[in-house]
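Hey all, sorry for the wall of text incoming. These are the two entities for the joint prediction.
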Amino acid sequence: MIHFVLLISRQGKVRLTKWYSPYSQKERTKVIREISGLMLHRGPKLCNFVEWGGLKVVYKRYASLYFCMCIDPEDNELETLEVIHHFVEILDRYFGSVSEQLYFLNLAYYILDELVIAGEIQESSKKTVARLISAQDSLVEAAKEEASSISNIIAQATK
Amino acid sequence: MNPFSSGTRLRDMIRAIRACKTAAEERAVVRKECAAIRASINENDQEYRHRNLAKLMFIHMLGYPTHFGQMECLKLIASAGFPEKRIGYLGLMLLLDERQEVLMLVTNSLKQDLNHTNQYIVGLALCALGNICSAEMARDLAPEVERLLQFRDPNIRKKAALCSIRIIKKVPDLAENFINPAAALLKEKHHGVLITGVQLCTDLCKVSSEALEHFRKKCTEVLVKTLKDVANSPYAPEYDVGGITDPFLHIRLLRFLRVLGQGDADASDSMNDILAQVATKTESNKNAGNAILYECVETIMSIEDNGGLRVLAINILGRFLSNRDNNIRYVALNMLMKAISVDAQAVQRHRATILECVKDSDASIRKRALELVYLLINESNVKPLTKELIDYLEVSDQEFKGDLTAKICSIVEKFSPEKIWYIDQMLKVLSEAGNFVKDEVCHALIVVMSNAPDLHGYTVRALYKAFQASSEQESLVRVAVWCIGEYGDMLVKNVGMLDVEDPITVTESDAVDVAEITIKRHTSDLTTKAMALIALLKLSSRFPSCSERIRDIIVQQKGSLVLELQQRSLEFNSILEKHRNIRSALVERMPVLDEATFSGRRAGSVPTTLSPSTMASVKVPNGVVKPAAAPLVDLLDLTSDDAPAPSSSSGDFLNDILGVDLSPASAHSGASQAAKNGTDVLMDILSLGTPPAQSSSSTPDIFSLSQNQKSPVASLDGLSTSSPVSAHAASPQAASSIIDLLDGLGPSPPAPENNGPAYPSVVAFESSSLRVMFDFSKSPGNPQITVIKATFTNLSSNIYADFVFQAAVPKFLQLHLDPASGNTLPASSSGTVTQTLRVTNSQHGKKSLVMRIRIAYKINGKDVLEEGQINNFPREL
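and here's what came out:
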C-alpha cells in the first residue's frame, strides 16, 4: 500500500502531501526532510527507488517537481512508477501542462482522491477520473451561480 | 466583516509566503494569516469559511500548527451544500488523522452523507472514511459501506471496496461480513471496480483464512479467465499504457492469484497456463510491461512448484539483470533474493553479474546487490567472492564502506575454511577500513589469533607490517598493539616463520616504537592508548634491554589528564621499579581465550562461570581496559614497599594472594569454601576496589558473589595446580606469608578461635549415610550471634549430587545460611562440603539453640531426603 504521497520542488519546497498512514505533525516534518534529502541528492541516471526506514520510496522527476510515493517493501516498485505517471498524466490533462504554480490548488488533491483511496489505486482510466472531477466541478459552479442569483434577487428586491 | 480575512485571497497569501526571503519572514506572514483566520472563525464568518480552510491547508502543508481549524472542517462537512462539503472533507483528511479525538465528532455527519441522495457526496464521505477512519468509526460505519458495495453506480462501488480494505485492516473481525459482497465484485466488467474488488479480496485473505478458502474454491477459475481476457484484449484506448491494456489490473490479478496459489497445488495448477502466457507474451520494452513481468515472476516463484515455469521466471530475471535500465536491474536483484530459496543454483549462475552490481554507482543497487551476494556465499565460493569484495573495499565510497565492511567481516567469520585465511582477510579489512570495523569483530579476531598458537609469529609480523603501512585505522592499531604486547618476542626473533612469508628484521626498539607511536598520537582514543600502555608493560619483561626506555614512556603518562591512563601509569611504574621479581610472572602471555565462552557471550547468553580468561576478554567489547594483570596490580600497589614475593609462578602467586585475602576476611569458618569459589570472586572484589584486608565485613560480599556461580570449583582449575582441598589446607601458611607481603598495611588477621570462649564441636546429625558436624564460634562483640560451620561427610559409597542443606529455627532465633561450598559430596568420606550458618539468638542466656534440618540429595539421579532435629547444642549459645 502507499503510505504517503509527496510532491517536492527541486528546491526542496513541499507542494503537496497526502498521508495514508498515521504520522504526527512532527513525524511528517521529519519524513519530508529525510526524504527530500535522499531524493534531491541522487543523480539523474540512477534508479528511481530509495530504501528508507524499512519502506521504499519510489520517486520520479517531472520538470522541476519530484513526485514521490512511499510503499511497502514487498510492493511492486515498477507499478508504483506507473501510478505516478498515471497521476501526472491526469494532472496534465486537467491543467494543460505540469505547471508548478497550480499544484497547491485543491484540485490536485481532488484528483488524487479520485485516484487513490486508503493507499490503493482505484481507477485505471484517465477518462473516468477526468469525468468525475468535471462533474463535481460543475456541481460547485452550479452552487455558486445559484448563490449569486439568489443574492442578485435579494439585491434587486431590496433596491 | 473582518477587515483581515477579506483582504487576502488564497492566491495572494501563497504569493506573499513564496516571496518571503527568510524563514523568519515566512513565519511572520503565516502568523498574521493565522490570526486573521482565527478571528474570522470566531466571528462565525460563513462567507469566508471556504477560503479560510483552503488557506489553512496550505499553511498546514508548510508544517505550521493548524489544530484551531479542525472544528471548521466539521462545520463545513455538516453544512448542506456540495462545495462546502467538498472542501470540508478535504480539510478533514489533511488536518486530522485517525488518532485525534475530534474525529469521532464527524461520525454522524459521515453516516448521513453515506446515505445521501447525491452520489458525489456519498463519494466524498467514502473517500474520507477510507483515508482516515479509526477502529471505532470502522465498526460504526461498516454496515453502510457494506451496503454501498452494491450501489448502482460503479464509481461508488469501487470507492466502497477500498473503504472496506481500511475497515478490515482496522477491525479484522469484520472481515467475514465482506467476503460475499467482495466476491460479487470479481464478476464485474468495470475496470475500476475490478481493480478495487481484487485488491479487497487480496486483503481479506490476509486477515481471514476463511476468506482465503472461500476465494480459492469459488473464484480461482473466474480470476484466471479475467486475466486471460485482459491479457488478450484488443487495443483499448481508455486503459492502454504503452501498448498494454490496464497494467494495474494485470498486476492486481497476478498478485491475488499468488495468494490463492500459495500452498495449494490445485489452484496453482489451474493458473499455470495463463502465467506461462503472461510470462512469454508480455512486451518488455516499456516499464508497464516490465512491471507485469516482475509481478508474474514473483507469482511463479511463490505458487506450488512447476519446474518449467520456474525456468521461465529465472530467465526473465536474468534478462532483467543484464538490462541497461537501473530500475529493472534493481527489481531483478530484489527478486533474486526471493529466488534463492527456490533455486539457489540458478541464482548462482548470475554471480558474476551480481558482483558487478555491488560496484555500481547507484547506492540503492549496491545495497541490494550486497545483500544478495551475502546470501550467495557458501563454503565453495567464499574465497574468490571475499577477494572481490575486499578489492572493492579499497575504491568504494566512504558511506558504503560501513555496510560493506560489516558484511565482509560477517562472511569471513561465518565461512572461513582455515584460520590463516581468516586472519589474512581480517588484516586486509582492518588495513582498508579499520575505522568501520566494530569492536566485537576485533575481539573475535583476537580470540581466533589467540587460539592459533602456530600462527602467532606470522600474525604479529603481518600486523607489524600492516601497522607500518596504514597506522591511521584505529581498529588495526588496537589489534596490532595487543599482538605486539603479547607476542613481541616472536616478532623480533622471527619465530614460527611460514613458507609464504618474506623474512623481516625488526629490532626490539622497533616493536616498542609501535606502542610509543600509538600512545603519543593525538587521534588515538582512550582504549587504544590504554592497550598500548599494557603492551608496553608486557614488552618491558619481554625485552629487558628496552626496559629503561619503556619505563620512561610509561612515566610520561603520569601526567595524563585521563584518570585511567594516569593511574595505570603509576601502577605500572611501581611494578617496574619495585616488583622486578614478580614482573615476568605478572605479564606472562594471556591464557588462550576460550572460543566457546566468547561465542556464547556474543549470542547474548551470560556465561555461568567467569573464568579468568573471560575476565580478561571483557575488555574489548566494553571498551574498558581491564587486563588480567590490572586487579593484581591494584592489590600489589597497596601492598608495595618491596615486599618479598612469595613465589615465582603466576598460578601459585595468585593462589597465595587468594588464601591471604580470604583467610582474614572469612576467618576459620569460610576460608576453604571461599578458596574453592575461585579467583574470579577475588577479581571481582579487587576490581571493585575493595582493599584486600577488610576484615570480616567483606564476607557477605564474597558469598553473595559466589551465589551467582553455578560451578565455583571449576574456575580455579586453570590457575591452581593444587586441588581445592589442599588449597584449603594450605591457607593458614599462605596467610602467614602474605602478612609479610602486606607489611603491616592490613590489620593482622583476627583469629576468631582466640576471641571469646571456645565451644566443643558436636555431631549434629548422623545417619547410616551422612554425618553433619557443627563447629561454633562467637563474634566477640555480639554474644547473641553464633557462627556455625557445618561440615557434611558422606559415609556411603555413592556420590551425592545436588546436595542441599536446609534448616529451620523457632521464632526467637534468626538464621542466615550462606551458600554451601559445593553441591556434590564425594563418596566414602573422601571429601566434605561445608556451609556457614549464622544464628542470632534474641533470648541469649535464657534459651538455648534448637534447629530442624532437612537434607536433600541425589544418588544416581534418585532423590533422597533426610530430616532431623538438633537439640544437642552447647547450652550457653
